[in-house]
Structure to design on (458 residues):
């Protein structure tokens, strides 16, 4: 007789759809970090003519430093909108449903990405990225809620790890395609072409996604397996204020606040690090970004899947969720520590290896922290909790983004990598102090007026 786990695997198709969505989300997000290394783009954003009397204008060191500081401010604007958007997206998705809420997010970010190809200065770029941040914030609340709807608790970290691997694939595709587009068709083509991808995703999502109970292709045995540890009392409505009263929310928020800014630092500044870091014996440009970034983010993908699988394996051995997740997160935190040396080595190979290890560990950390929301809260508030955590992560990203350009122009990349090397260990210590055991919040612990009882009481 077949078991539920072998008689149906439709739920993994849903993960594949989330993987695709996350990939496109990161393509649109990542385009700017590669485009910013293009000389013509920098000149146009700074309102500097590309040539003078037929002779190409050369950017001075002062102009380059000014561009990096302004770029950091644009990055902070994106993250500010992302923080606000995370809260709004989580709230909206919990109220109008995953399908409609995510569809709105995809549409909004795709329009914003496409419109970036028409900006002509830093002010226009700032507004375009702000709009993009609002739309892109829907991806993770929707994806984490979808995993909570489609997977039993013991499989969620692995499922989260799989869809989260799309972040790396998105960066790889960007590193390979965007330099080609810029070199052959100009920097505007990079935003226009990649912005079109979201509209295809929107059509696919709208005509593919349904809840498990409404999906005719899902077998009865697989549905029973998905529902094997479902919440008995579904939550109707819970305010952000109420959710902030739980230490479980704060544990998740701490993990995001400390780690997300580091990942965003990698996304925003690694192309410039490889392009301008004087310590390296070799420098990369639009013609040579492809292979190194392919290596970094293939390793990151492996880390996302491996560390998500590792937690699941620990739990299959009989470990508690608390022990399994925190052990995996400790391993991830330790793997990031050596990254400070990447800013000191002269070897491009060593720098790539250290950054690859750190990004893989971050993805493992992310796969496990995202699972906090679905492990610790009833399904009906997972998107809201994810939105709160994402908002805290974005606030941390805003603070680091505002400082990054100024720190890099004044002191180089070493201080930034030192911050990265210790953030995860500090975060894990704080999480354990706030939440020594990963005890889930039960529906009945929420305000009694805000849930449906088994008997149907309003």
């Amino acid at each position: 007789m077949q078991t539920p786990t072998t008689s149906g695997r439709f739920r993994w198709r849903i993960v594949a759809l989330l993987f695709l969505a996350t990939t496109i989300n990161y393509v649109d997000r990542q385009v700017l970090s590669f485009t910013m290394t293009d000389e013509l783009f920098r000149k146009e954003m700074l309102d500097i003519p590309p040539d003078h009397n037929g002779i190409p204008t050369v950017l001075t060191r002062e102009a380059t430093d000014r561009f990096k500081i302004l770029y950091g401010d644009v990055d902070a604007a994106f993250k500010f909108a992302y923080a606000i958007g995370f809260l709004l997206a989580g709230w909206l998705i919990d109220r109008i449903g995953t399908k409609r809420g995510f569809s709105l997010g995809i549409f909004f970010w795709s329009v914003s990405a496409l419109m970036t190809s028409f900006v002509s200065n830093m002010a226009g770029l700032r507004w375009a990225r702000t709009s993009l941040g609002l739309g892109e914030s829907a991806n993770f609340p929707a994806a984490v809620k979808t995993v909570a709807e489609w997977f039993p608790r013991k499989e969620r970290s692995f499922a989260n790890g799989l869809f989260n691997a799309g972040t790396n694939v998105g960066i790889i595709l960007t590193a390979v395609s965007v330099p080609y587009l810029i070199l052959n068709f100009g920097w505007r083509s990079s935003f226009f072409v990649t912005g079109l991808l979201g509209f295809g995703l929107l059509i696919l999502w709208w005509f593919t996604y349904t809840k498990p109970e409404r999906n005719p292709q899902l077998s009865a045995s697989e549905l029973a397996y998905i529902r094997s540890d479902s919440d008995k009392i579904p939550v109707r409505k819970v305010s952000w204020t109420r959710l902030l009263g739980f230490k479980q929310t704060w544990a998740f928020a701490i993990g995001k606040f400390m780690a997300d800014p580091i990942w965003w630092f990698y996304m925003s500044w690694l192309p410039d690090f490889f392009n301008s870091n004087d310590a390296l014996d070799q420098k990369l440009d639009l013609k040579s970004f492809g292979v190194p970034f392919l290596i970094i983010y293939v390793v990151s993908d492996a880390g996302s899947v491996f560390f998500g699988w590792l937690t699941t394996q620990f739990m299959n051995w009989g470990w508690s969720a608390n022990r399994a997740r925190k052990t995996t997160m400790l391993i991830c935190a330790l793997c990031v520590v050596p990254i400070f040396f990447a800013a000191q080595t002269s070897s491009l190979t060593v720098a790539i290896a250290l950054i690859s290890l750190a990004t893989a560990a971050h993805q493992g950390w992310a796969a496990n922290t995202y699972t906090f929301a679905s492990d610790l809260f009833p399904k009906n508030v997972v998107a809201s909790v994810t939105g709160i955590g994402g908002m805290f992560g974005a606030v941390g990203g805003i603070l680091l983004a505002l400082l990054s350009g100024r720190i890099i122009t004044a002191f180089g990349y070493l201080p930034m990598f030192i911050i990265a090397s210790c953030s995860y260990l500090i975060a894990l210590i704080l999480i354990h102090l706030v939440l020594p055991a990963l005890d889930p919040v039960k529906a009945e612990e929420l305000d009694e007026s805000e849930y449906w009882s088994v008997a149907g009481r309003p």
In short: Residues 23 and 169 are 6 Å apart (CA to CA).
